[in-house]
């Protein structure tokens, strides 16, 4: 979070939007009505694009750490994030 503050903030925004969308869908008893919300598809697509950008930034960050400490090449991304 400290190393990638912009991405961390963007992820928090996307997470809040996701929770809001899922809360509204959960409250709607009819799936068809719930998914017909204005711009829902566009909103989800935009969130997905932003998540892909965040993922790429995170992978680049982890790659720089692996270049500094080659032993990190043998550790998965999830484990490396816990270590860092």
Describe the structure.
The protein is mainly α. 75% of the residues lie in helices and 0% in strands. It has 4 helices and no strands. Helix 1 packs antiparallel against helix 3. The N and C termini lie close together (10 Å).
SSE topology:
Layout (H helix, E strand, L loop, with lengths): L4 H23 L3 H4 L5 H29 L8 H7 L1
Number of DSSP helices? 4
The main sheet comes to: none
Number of strands: 0
- Beta-strand share of residues: under 5%
The separation of the N and C termini measures: 10 Å
Structural class: mainly alpha
Indicate the percent of residues in helices.
Answer: over 70%
Listing every helix as H and every strand as E from the N terminus to the C terminus, the arrangement reads HHHH
Contiguous runs where pLDDT drops below 50 for at least 5 residues: none
- Report the principal-axis shape: elongated
Mean pLDDT: 84
Radius of gyration: 17 Å
Question: What can be said about this structure in brief?
Answer:
The chain has 84 residues and is an all-alpha fold.
Any descriptors?
84 residues; 4 helices; elongated; 75% helix
């Amino acid at each position: 979070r400290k190393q990638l503050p912009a991405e961390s903030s963007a992820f928090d925004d996307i997470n809040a939007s996701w929770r809001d969308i899922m809360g509204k869908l959960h409250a709607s008893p009819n799936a068809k009505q719930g998914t017909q919300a204005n711009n829902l598809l566009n909103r989800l697509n935009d969130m997905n694009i932003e998540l892909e950008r965040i993922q790429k930034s995170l992978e680049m960050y982890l790659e720089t750490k692996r270049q500094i400490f080659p032993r990190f090449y043998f550790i998965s991304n999830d484990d490396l994030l816990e270590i860092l």
